[in-house]
Design brief:
This protein is of the alpha/beta class and 427 residues long. It contains 18 helices and 13 strands. It binds ligand PLA.
Amino acid sequence: MQTVSRLLLRSSAGKQAFSRSISRCKSSGSPWAAYEMAPLDPIIGLNEQYQKDDFPQKVIVGVGAYRDDVGKPYVLPCVREAEQKMMYAHLDMEYSGIAGDPTFVDLALKFGYGEDSDAMKENRIQGVQALSGTGGLRVMGEMLRKHGHKHIYVPNPTWGNHIPIFTNSGLEVKKYSYYDASNSSLAFDNMVKDFKEMPEGSAVLLHACAHNPTGMDPTLEQWKQLSELIKKQKLLPFFDCAYQGFASGNHATDAASIRMFVEDGHTLAMVQSFSKNFGLYGHRIGALSVVGADEDEAKRVVSQMKMVIRPMYSNPPRHGARIVSTVLSDPKLSQDFKDQCAGMAERINTMRIALRSSLEATGTSRPWDHITKQIGMFAFSGLTKEEVTNMRDIHHIYCTMDGRISMAGVTSDNVDYIANAIHDVSK
Ligand code: PLA
């Protein structure tokens, strides 16, 4: 009790909240009386606003969750087939180990790093099952902090949740230049400049592909330069691989940056999410791994991950791991997965072309070519906060305040409506 009070009283905000809490408790008698209503989440909170809107043509292009061309959630047929197989196998419902399902972890790492990776063959890559990308990021953040890291660098801009995930892990979040909004391109020179100024040993978060929210990735030549620079500066690269397969449609192509770094001899970390590529959003399935100097080193790091996981959530859920393992261990289902993942990426690209041409047909004076230059799940439209608010208030179209549009929510039916609304708020 005393320790909690002392912790709360450490910051002035904490002090204020604490004294508010005491005085409200005294007046109402409830220990919850002083709890303020928290703001809606900037991404997931949009769903709540959208649900309440009764306008018939309302559109949600907020959260990056794939929809088919009639706007419905999509379960990959290979996932359905895997579930059928699992049902007849009468599997038990025992606890997983702290590190999760070892068969899944092995298959996930091969999926990310490539079966032919020398580091894989040398057992220098070890990992754990994670509560999808978010859970893996949090475990990594916590582990880094426990092992002496004070800060982590993330791109500016980055996925909004990266910042609270790492802050809540006890790390200071620093930003490196990434995007030049004035011409919708990668700010590569500034990025290099910032990397050169990072203190030795700093952890630096890199989006493996399909950067969220900008949809702009370094070219392979630029990745090579970054790889050399990161090595020279003795930084710790940490790849967030949340969209493997969504950029090019091919999961091996989309892992090129990571595979290049491993080949270049980096010791690094990676978090993988199977939310988007396998469409397993609600199953919270991912992996967190490291490439060590040798097998023993990698295993020691994994043992420390387990020390973070056990008191946090004990062990991860089984179902998603079993689905991914069933698909990836079956040649036919693996091929089906590749085709179905490519199909999702293709539909998104078709919608990029459709949105751009529909915008251009409005007689707009703004350039919209960046929509087809960008890749992955999102279009970083360039709409201002005010324009985004007007999209919502006037046209009932919900995208995030930074002007990010989830292309996965754009369909043949709503694309013209979205384009006309964008034109209306931006002309
Ligand atoms: N990393 C990045 C770069 C992401 O964009 C997301 C999800 C995650 C990790 C985590 O996803 P997971 O925990 O489901 O694996 N970003 C979404 C969803 C798609 C969200 O905000 O939670 C987005 O709309 O940005």
